[in-house]
Design brief:
Blueprint lengths: L2 H22 L6 H25 L4 H24 L3 H26 L1
Helix pairs in contact: 1-2, 1-4, 2-4, 3-4
Length: 113
């Protein structure tokens, strides 16, 4: 897969992650948060390039659903365990995290697939 193809896949996913981070963090993002979100988008793009480049298009929905549940679940579960935050709010954020990965998977399937 060429670097231009990867860039075309990374750009909308990075924008999605930045907008989602901005919307869920009280409409503010510091420099460190931006770097983390961009790194997350890059890793997801590289993972998608590996998936679509070697294994094809089949099952992308399930792969990104499970990946989103894994990432969002670990993040929210850790926050709940360490901070003892409200369960309902964490459940909503978990759902939004999974949806973010599904939308990113759809964008990457469109751009890389």
């Amino acid at each position: 897969m060429s670097l231009s193809t990867l860039s075309l896949g990374f750009a909308p996913v990075a924008a999605l992650f930045l907008v989602a981070g901005w919307a869920t963090n009280g409409r503010t993002l510091n420099r460190a948060a931006v770097v983390v979100l961009l790194a997350e988008a890059l890793v997801l793009t590289l993972f998608a390039a590996l998936w679509f480049g070697s294994l094809g298009h089949g099952g992308w929905f399930l792969v990104f659903l499970l990946l989103g549940a894994l990432v969002a679940g670990a993040d929210r579960g850790l926050r709940f365990a360490l901070l003892r935050s409200a369960g309902g709010e964490e459940l909503r954020r978990f759902g939004l995290g999974v949806v973010k990965y599904l939308v990113a998977g759809a964008l990457l399937a469109w751009r890389l697939g």
